[in-house]
Specification:
14 helices; alpha/beta; 34% helix; binds calcium ion; 16% strand
Length: 521
């Protein structure tokens, strides 16, 4: 009898234990993940990074309530390669996407697949840009290729769907719908990825009037002469050469007698591209565009700027449309953060904000990215997770986009594969400290001579103070910068006897990094 009672008690205990397991939706240790990424959003256009140009209250909220990485960089400053790094935690030479021409191999292990294995519901909405269909997602709805700014065509789980409206808003509507419809018995990981503020920077009408009467300041290096930097001199990414139609949004009759501009790719049929883009607007959008851009066109025809006046007119046009596109991104992020609050999800959700890389907002006279120079090597990185990250934390250690997959797996309590090359940022986020943190980062850019902008392939090392870059193509040459003395990287010190020892030491470190990351050639 006693044995029977004891067995019965055990039986009841087991039943209770089983019931507890099945009624717990998921381990309380597993946070939700909202990964927000925009395209080409420079740190210089975020107020919590000290922007003098724009106020971004919703992105700033993440800095206020979470952590901001003061020194966050990418490993290869161009769209598709950076996206592949963020999915795999591996450098381009290992994940297979070296430049925008490459196709992502979706069969390889990725962050969403590993999170699925750890019990997560995974989804992606918005920009994808990796050519093959997304893998590892329970739900996906992505823009085709680069996507359009208005009325985007998207692929939802294999089917093409056309949406009406401004893409930043459409993407956000889809993000909110996905969050609302998600299975509630699992933690989620949603990748919410904007097309904006990618070229050709088409704002939504509600922001057309922002900065309309202002003259925004030219960066100090706008009239750089590229002395001592032949690759910089060769690049085709000057604001002065931006397309009159596609970038400046003028009509051919407005700029008769002016060159179209090389625009980074003289072969590109820019006239057709801009007229196709305009034809994609619906009548209401078209009329809002006319109301604003007809004034711009009239002003151009009245002033007929030439020389520097034309270059500076182009800069104002470029920078204003870029910043207006950012205003929409910020406002839409605000909607999603408000949803997390309303749904009671803010405490148990890691929110990441980043971009696929930085961008030139006129520094060195440029737009675009690619170079290992600071404005495009840097990328915004803000992470909020109230349960583990002190509000207002500023992290100065060097972080890479490569670190995000291991970081998120670490927070999810999932194993980090040994061949992932990044470091988990979790200790830095939790305590501001990490033992033996990296003292240098490794960078490598490939896209040349195909593709856009004629930026010669290069690789290099950046320490806290120095940067050594090797431009590989014949005739190969090196650049060295002392970032403490020359933060704008105008003075190439390579070859000066005074720095010989420094170069030898940096080169040794660089070769070590190449071995460590298995980038041997
Ligand atoms: Ca990009």
């Amino acid at each position: 009898m006693k044995i029977a009672t004891t067995l019965f008690r055990y039986f009841v205990l087991i039943l209770i234990a089983l019931a507890t397991v099945s009624s717990t939706p998921f381990s309380p240790q597993q946070p939700n993940i909202l990964f927000i990424m925009s395209d080409d959003h420079a740190q210089q256009a975020i107020s919590s990074y000290g922007s003098q140009l724009i106020t971004t209250p919703h992105i700033d909220r993440l800095a206020k309530e979470g952590a901001l990485f003061e020194n966050s960089f990418v490993t290869n400053s161009i769209c598709a390669p950076s996206r592949a790094v963020l999915l795999t935690g591996k450098y381009s030479h290992l994940n297979g996407v070296r430049d925008n021409r490459d196709t992502f191999d979706g069969a390889q292990p990725t962050l969403p697949k590993l999170l699925q294995q750890a019990g997560y519901y995974t989804a992606i909405v918005g920009k994808w840009h990796l050519k093959t269909e997304p893998t590892g997602f329970d739900y996906w709805n992505v823009l085709i290729g680069q996507g359009q700014y208005y009325n985007p065509r998207m692929i939802e789980m294999g089917d093409t769907v056309k949406y009406e409206g401004y893409t930043t808003t459409v993407t956000t509507d889809l993000a909110l719908k996905t969050l609302q419809a998600r299975p509630k018995d699992k933690p989620f990981c949603l990748l919410y990825q904007h097309k904006a503020p990618h070229r050709n920077f088409m704002p939504e009408p509600s922001y057309f009037s922002a900065w309309e009467k202002d003259t925004l300041p030219l960066p100090a290096t706008f009239y750089d002469d590229y002395e001592g930097r032949p690759a910089a001199a060769e690049a085709d990414m000057r604001v002065a050469d931006m397309y009159m139609g596609f970038d400046m949004k003028l009509m051919p009759e407005d700029y008769e007698g002016y060159p179209e501009g090389s625009g980074g790719n003289a072969e590109f049929d820019v006239g057709e591209s801009w007229s196709n883009t305009l034809a994609g607007l619906n009548p209401e959008q078209r009329s809002a565009w006319s109301q604003h851009y007809d004034k711009v066109r009239q002003q151009f025809r009245a002033e007929q700027p030439k020389g520097r006046a034309l270059t500076e007119w182009k800069f104002q046009r470029y920078i204003k449309d870029y910043l207006r596109s950012v205003l929409s991104v910020d406002a839409q992020i605000g909607r999603v953060l408000a949803y997390l609050d309303e749904a009671g999800l803010s405490d148990n959700t890691i929110v990441v904000y980043t971009s696929d890389q930085g961008f030139y907002l006129g520094e060195h006279g440029w737009y675009d990215k690619r170079f290992m120079y600071e404005p495009s090597l840097r990328t915004p990185l803000l992470i909020r997770y109230p349960k583990a990250i002190q509000a207002g934390r500023r992290i100065s250690q060097m972080a890479l986009n490569l670190d995000l997959p291991p970081t998120l797996l670490d927070f999810a309590g999932a194993p980090i594969p040994e061949d992932m090359q990044g470091l988990s940022l979790k200790p830095l986020l939790e305590s501001g400290k990490a033992r033996r943190w990296r003292k240098a980062i490794y960078y490598r850019y490939y896209e040349y001579p195909h593709g856009w902008h004629k930026v010669r392939p290069h690789y290099g090392i950046r320490t806290e103070r120095y940067k050594l870059i090797h431009f590989e193509n014949e005739p190969g040459y090196w650049e060295l910068y002392d970032l403490a003395e020359d933060p704008d990287e105008l003075n190439n010190l390579y070859g000066q006897p005074k720095y010989e020892k420094r170069v030898r030491q940096l080169n040794r470190q660089l070769q070590e990094l190449r071995r460590q990351y298995r980038d041997g050639r």
